Amino acid sequence: MKSNGRKLAEIILTFFGVGKIPFAQGTFASAITATLYYFTLSGKLNLEIPITLSTFIISLSLTKYIRVIWKEKNDPPEVVIDEVLGMMLSMFALPKKPEIAIASFLVFRFLDITKIPPINLFDRMKSPYGVMLDDIVGGIMANIILKIAISIFPEL
After folding, report:
1. Domains in the chain, number
2. pLDDT tens, residue by residue, 94-118
3. Other CB atoms closer than 10 Å to residue 22's CB: what's the count?
4. Domain boundaries, position 41
5. What per-residue string of b and e applies to 4-15 under the rule 16 or more CB within 10 Å gives b?
6. Burial (0-12, 13-18, 19+ Cβ within 10 Å), 55
């Protein structure tokens, strides 16, 4: 990979350097994503669909460079684009309400940290694609949990 391409991949994979924060990189990336998503995309399905899909395609296409950039690490903490995509999926097509955005963040982070089944199956893949897939599944699960909660408690 040429140095310019490598640098661009690193910038995207670390979510513009958020992954270089020395602690809680995934939590910071998720919180920033939730905030940006809420204020720019939430409630605007015509924007949510193409931007989430573009993030999905770009992040999956860059996962092959994880081992090129971080040779000795299978799931480097610097790579947080997976949390970005998982957080976006957890908020996808949900009502624009601050309490739902906060709940989405909390449910996604819980699932991402605990790696309950079936998330743990993807986490065990020990490949760059496993790095992405566990957060994709976690984001989808969080979204489903929230949609069920909203249908049970419509006042949310």
Report:
1. 1
2. 999 999 999 999 999 999 999 999 9
3. 6
4. 3-152
5. eeeeebbebbbb
6. middle
